[in-house]
Amino acid sequence: MIKVLYSDDGVVMLRPLTMADADAHLAGQDVEYVTWLDGADGTEATEKRRLADAEKAWEAGGPTFAFAIMSEGKLAGTITAEVGREDLHDNQADIVYGLYPDTRGRGIATRAVMLMVSFLDQVPGISEAVIRVSPANPRSRSVAERAGFEPLETEQTAGSEYEWLSSRVSLVPAEARG
Ligand SMILES: CC(C)(COP(=O)(O)OP(=O)(O)OC[C@H]1O[C@@H](n2cnc3c(N)ncnc32)[C@H](O)[C@@H]1OP(=O)(O)O)[C@@H](O)C(=O)NCCC(=O)NCCS
């Protein structure tokens, strides 16, 4: 059961992404965000649908957990974790993130990933966070590395078009804790 929806490290706060973020999100996104963020195409209709889906998933308790990345009281970007994907093991959550251009270059994405990992610690059955980056997007790989993720080279990742990095979410599964 998800108990804590908000996380904050004093500089960056994550809170659930909702339809109320539509205007700021549409104004903030740029070509880079749209190019690299899975499922984004930059059109108002698609982006509003993504936000509506995000809101519904919060009500349903998954399988996606989409957060607004807040910095200095403003929407700086988005970060989403997805569990139960067919291309991942049951204990793995996939993380994708994007910042708007004026919030890049300040360590905000790295902080957001670290906050996401601590959020995932309370999701039952999830013990590993995975970030898959395109070899053509080294800035994204750097975020994962700064957040402490390490290359994942297993049977699962062999032959993938992406570079996989992973981080342990917790040593003790959520359901085994008191
Ligand atoms: C990928 C993306 C999120 C990276 O953003 P970013 O701002 O470079 O990442 P961070 O927030 O971790 O910031 C790191 C940068 O801030 C700098 N920085 C400044 N202060 C910092 C601090 N206190 N802590 C860490 N880094 C800091 C770092 O030196 C680094 O800059 P550099 O790359 O010029 O060396 C961004 O390029 C983006 O939104 N791209 C489009 C979407 C995308 O590619 N998503 C990935 C799909 S999974």
Automatic annotation (TrEMBL):
Upper classification of the source organism reads:
Bacteria, Bacillati, Actinomycetota, Actinomycetes, Micrococcales
Alphabetized, the UniProt keywords read: Transferase
State one Pfam family annotation: Acetyltransf_3
Gene Ontology MF terms in the entry: acyltransferase activity, transferring groups other than amino-acyl groups
Highest rank taxon of the organism: Bacteria
Supply the name of the protein.
Answer: Protein N-acetyltransferase, RimJ/RimL family
InterPro entries xref list: Acyl_CoA_acyltransferase, GNAT_dom, N-acetyltransferase
| N-acetyltransferase domain span | 12-169
